[in-house]
Amino acid sequence: MKACIMCGGAGTRLRPLTFKHPKPSIPILNEPSVRHLIEHLSREGFNEIVMTLGYMGERIEEQLGDGHIFGVHIDYVYEKEKMGTAGGVKNAEEYLKNEPFIVLGGDHVLNLDLREMYRFHEANDAPITIGLLSIDDPREFGIADMDINNRIHRFLEKPKAGQIFSNLASTGIYVCDPSIFDWIPENTRYDFAKDLFPALLAADEKINGVLVRGKWTDVGSSAAYRQAQRWMLDALPGTSIEGHFAAKNARIRGPLKIGNNVSVGSNSSLVGPIVIGENSVIGDNVLVGPYSVIGSNCVIEDNAKLLSSYLFDHVRIGENSNISGAIVADDTIIGENCSLENGTVIGHKVIIGNNSTIHSGVKIWPEVMINKNSSIKEITLNPDYDTTYDGS
Q: What is the pLDDT of residues 19-34, one digit of tens each?
């Protein structure tokens, strides 16, 4: 079975994290997010994969290679300019034109039964089947009006108040017949939800929906990213330690996944689920609470607290600092006696001076220096980087 993974977006809503990492490469449990998606597709029997690439696409190809280590074969198609979701898939037509295929976003994190969805599509006569999930607040998604026979009669992208006729939200996962390529114009920016679906419905062409079960999110925002990490941490099967691990008078309760050459100091406490990357050092009297991920080559100094937070690689946390519900990108240094409150997102190569507080929900752009004794209450941009932080 074939799959097409769309990886063209710049991930502006996830900034400052996506200045160094394309959105599909944002680490989840210290692995690129899209790697978890490829592994799930492989388990579901999708072994021919086409990836449409745009922003920092070379980084994604470098991380995945030809796919053989995942038991799949991957082809890559680069977009010279943004063509929209359907336009990007049209760009890969030569790889997809001979049989039905499933389309997913490169930022999807899920455990859905995709094989069941594919089989449903094969057993019915619609040119496209949309995976639908009932959610509480569908305003950021497309919503569908589906009848008892699975036929969709209305579809509306990102409805406003008073327009929410259904809470069946599109997952952005579609099973398509190659016949859809006849509906997508050449060399034109064209989206599935905004353009293709309305065109098919206007022509009285059949669109089916299928209710999917399980967990799904697109990692389009820092809140969704934190949720995806929690899901994956909940799925840890137990405690695993790779290579050398040193712990001196520490209290450790799993589940944990610990990389090679990790050390934990005296009287520290680790309460899983936690993932720690290789060569990381945790000092004395440190508390690492549940739902935390520590990257490789990180240092957490004495008396620090890390609670439900996610550190990328080469991050240093100073003595007596408290990191709660935060995301901290690569090569960042947090000084002593600092507090990062819930929902803070810190870009790469940031330096935060001693005795500073970053208030809830604040984002700090890469390569910013925060002076000691600071209290940061608003987003802090770096004019050397693009300052857009809404959109895709």
A: 999 999 999 999 999 9
